[in-house]
Amino acid sequence: MPTAAKHPANLIRERGASTSGINLGGIGTGGVELWPDGRLHFWNIANSMPWSSYHKIDDPAIVPHLVDPIQPAVMDADFMIRIKEPGRRPAYRWLFTGYGLACGTASHFFRHHKYFFIKGFPEIEYRAEYPFIHLRYIDPSLPIELSLRAWTPFIPRDVKNSSLPGAYFDFTVKNKTRRQVDVSIIWQMQNISGYAAPAVTQKHVQLRRDGAEIVQMMGSLAAPEHDTSGDMAIWAKPQRGQKATAVSANPYMQNLIWSIHLTGGLSGPLMPERLKHEELNETPRPGAPNKGWLAMQQQVRGNATAAMSFGLAWFFPNHYSIRATRVGHMYENWFGSSADVAAYLAKRRDALLEQSALLPSELMRSSLPETLKLALLDQLSTVTKSSHFIKNGRVGVQEGHGCCAFNTVDVDHYASYALSILFPSLREKIMEMHTSMAHPLNGKINHGPPATVEELPAGGDDSGGYNRWDNCCQYTLQLYRDAKWSGNRAMIDAAYQTARRAMKLVADLDFYGIGLPYIEGGITYDHWDMRGVVGYMAGVYLAGLRALEDMAGIVGDAETQTWARERFDAGVRAFEEYLWNGTQ
């Protein structure tokens, strides 16, 4: 029998860490991902690439707004827990695994050497059921069990509360022992406001609104029009038996570690007098980024459970389009600062949680296969990850994150079903955009907005976009679907003539006189470039005729209703004769 291969004693086999996570953030707000390592990654809250997609610029006369994303260093945007058992020294853990990918630079190594007594968790269990991310921090040596539910409100048919620039971090602590344990969760957050501006000047303030302790952090005060200018906030809302403390501005952990060690909070004694206590202030501070701090502490009785809630909010209004036009964000119409967002989230948390839980709860209780249920939920994150929702109400979903155009008719044809069901008012806005871009002379439907959703002239953009014949049929099918599913008859009234004109234009391509359109190229499904009567084009054409027939009946256009039925019957006969062999 062959013997098992022996590995060298110095061989280490390590699997790569997961490099993605669920996005936290609302529709069109930008966001940040929470990964299985417990850290926040892909910070796209401040109008940076790739979310902004500013790389799609062809006009040399336009000065691009190219803002690279930022990634706060390890411990600069992370949670820490302190556990104090009676008669024992406090135990500490960073709420990430290992060193959180930190050992890349000498400065980060120095930090971990200095705080060697604060380890990361050896293991984190990550489970996603959009919009919720569930983390379970595993360390059997601790007297507590710790879990996190992170989420952003996502409520079908509630556009405002699904488009909020913020997120919740709800921790649950379970005491495994019979003795009371003093637990504190501390959050330090780097102020990224203005991080890419020519001159970074920051200001931090501490507020209390709607029962929440809020640290608001402003940035780029000297360049208020910069993409990254704005503000962000962290907040905590203590419940009965809990104490929340805050320090609005402190760049260094060493200034507060003594207070945390002795008291579990941020209002205790600072480190020895040799340190510069003047670093803790609220005045505008140029230079290196500052940080805001929050701590929540509670004495958890033996075998009891405690819940501690934190939140992140942001307000970065200077979103510029591909044409260097300031288009802003929809959330500007509802809020004036990140502190406003934080207060709104803190006040409505329970109601927003209950409503956000309905969709995943019902779907997970369904009889669908487990993998399909999770896949359906996971795909919903695309709506927030890759969307723009600008101040004037126009909305768009990118073909890919930071890639290509918005709301292209062909991609929308098979990718907008969830949006049509969950947010019909957004689909109505998108259909208004498509309708406005129909060719003013012949009615042909444009491929869709380019890498921007700002106002476009009637007839579309300068680059054309009218070379795809199947878009006419796909537009008609989307109009019919959205109106029927939402029960919004007004959508048909507003766009019926555009659909009718587009379908008659395609019907005129029946060069063979058999009832089906002839094309040369112009099919966008998988970039097919074909000549003649093509199966895919024929299929969407026939479906479009049936949709037009039904809509003609709804608006009382008997002539078009009869025309569409006759063209459909002729087209089906031709399809079966020329494109169907009985099996395929």
Could you walk me through the main structural features you see in this protein, from its secondary elements to its overall organization?
There is one protein chain. With 584 residues, this protein is an alpha+beta fold. The protein has 2 domains: 22-323 and 333-360, Beta-galactosidase, Chain A, domain 5 (Distorted Sandwich), CATH 2.70.98; 386-578, Glycosyltransferase (Alpha/alpha barrel). It is 28% helix and 24% strand. It has helices at 106-114, 257-263, 338-356, 358-364, 370-379, 381-385, 409-415, 417-422, 424-436, 470-486, 489-507, 535-555, 558-578; strands at residues 22-24, 32-34, 40-41, 77-84, 91-97, 119-121, 123-129, 132-138, 144-151, 166-175, 181-190, 201-209, 212-219, 230-236, 242-247, 285-286, 291-300, 305-315, 387-389, 395-400, 403-406, 519-520, 531-532. The strands form 5 sheets. Strands 7-8-9-10-18-14-13-12-16 form a 9-stranded antiparallel beta sheet. A 6-stranded mixed beta sheet has the order 6-5-4-11-17-15, with no helix packed on it. Strand 4 and strand 5 (91-97) form a beta hairpin. The radius of gyration is 28 Å and the shape is elongated. It starts with 21 loop residues before the first strand and ends in a 6-residue tail after the last helix. Residues 12-16 and 100-110 have low confidence and may be disordered.
